[in-house]
Amino acid sequence: MYKTLNEYFREKYSHRVHKITISLPFACPNKDGKISSDGCVFCREGSLPDGNDTKIPIEKQIRAGINKGKKRYGKNTLFMAYFQTGTNTYGSVKELKKIYDPILEFKEVIGLDVGTRPDCIDDEKINLLKSYSGSLKEIWVELGLQSASDKTLKAINRGHNAAEYVRAAELVKGAGLKLCAHMIIGINGESRNDYINTINMIIKSGADAVKIHPYHILKDTKAGEEYLKKPFKLLSLDEYADALAECVKLMPAEMVLMRFHGEANENVLLAPDYCLPKKRDELKELFLSKIGRV
After folding, report:
1. Residue 168 belongs to domain spanning
2. pTM above the 0.90 mark?
3. Total of domains in the chain
4. Domain harbouring 267, CATH code
5. 129-150 as b/e: b if 16+ CB within 10 A
6. For the chain, which terminus, N or C, has the lower number of CB atoms within 10 Å?
């Protein structure tokens, strides 16, 4: 079937490994004018994980994350530094090295996880990430594919095509790094064939993990503006759970399902309501029942 991230870490390290989300003011070529100034239609400017501030130095963010994690999960907890906000390889190798290096100061941190775009990865940046493999046990690169359909990628203004994902995935896997791909189910205008093609592309690319999100609409986004003018159909909770289960059943047994939901608070979410934090357990129970893992 599949593994959860906790299962993967427990099997490998016999300890809980907790991700520390690090937020930095990384730019995005799809927002700063290099590719586009509009960004993806679903992207909300200034959207950050709760409690994260891009102005706090990396070292302070890591130390706070370690202290919080140990308090919650125990003193033997290990950690992975997760650079999530923005495009975390969008800069020169020299700049990126200064940003990544501080994590090596913390013995509890065993891994680095970098979220980025397929068009912001090249040989030099891969070599930089690979250089940390002598000090860290886990080096992950998370690539935002979202859809294998170039038509969809253009419609949501991603600013890259599916071939660029394939190229980036080859670089990541060729360097012996771990790959996590992101995909969205239920994008306006897509059909079952589209999300099946997307998960199959991810599997074929050799991804070690996947994050799957339902298409959800936030305020202050291009998609939100369109939705408020003329609401379009989004997948119901049951439809999303069915589609999610169908994708997961195609995954190799060793593949990690890092995430299968997307969340937003009531003050920013327009639809669907099952993306509210309070609905998380309901979605999880329904999904698990559909794959027989209750």
Report:
1. 3-290
2. yes
3. 1
4. 3.30.750.200
5. beebeeebebbbbbbbbbbbbe
6. C
